[in-house]
Amino acid sequence: MEKNGMMIVLLALACGSASAGEVHQCLGQGGAVSYVDGDCPAGTHAGWIRSYDDDRAGQARSIRQARQETLEWQRSNRAEIAAMMRVHRGGRVASSGSGDGLDRCQRTRHRRDRVRDREFRTMTYDRMIALDDGVREACR
After folding, report:
1. Rounded CA separation 32/13 (Å)
2. What confidence tens digit (pLDDT) does each residue in 79-116 have?
3. Are strands 45-53 and 20-27 parallel, antiparallel or unpaired?
4. CB of 83 closer than 8 Å to CB of 94
5. Which residue, among 9, 4, 38, 35, has the nearest Cα to 21 in the 3D structure?
6. pLDDT at 134
7. Quick one: DSSP state of residue 89?
8. Of 69, 62, 100, the residue nearest 83 (C-alpha)
9. pLDDT of 19-63, one tens digit each?
10. Backbone dihedral angles phi then psi of residue 35, each to the nearest 5 degrees
11. CA 20 to 30 Å from 73, out of 12, 32, 56, 112?
């Protein structure tokens, strides 16, 4: 019984000390892959190294900030689209209403750049092509 209690204490101490560090991907002979928290063993070489930090409060803050930025970005896009969709008499599309002096081509480029900045980590090739096609269409 005392042996089990000692193991639990050792496990708790070991888990508590793993708050920050690095993970190494080690590539071996024949495509064997292993992940270690120190240097790669003999006969293997590093594929990549990732740092990690177990700062849960910081992670929660960054998640809240990212959500807030997403909401602000969505609001600005909705306002921009709503302004573009207003129709004047005669069926002509209204200007952006922002008074920024940008034509449709410039606004589309600006929007494409904002989307690229916003989605740079998750953007697919198809999404980038669609954004570029939108600019090409607006700038004809």
Report:
1. 31
2. 777 776 664 433 444 444 555 556 888 889 888 988 88
3. antiparallel
4. yes
5. 38
6. 93
7. T
8. 100
9. 567 888 899 988 888 888 888 988 898 888 887 766 777 778 888
10. -125, 125
11. 56
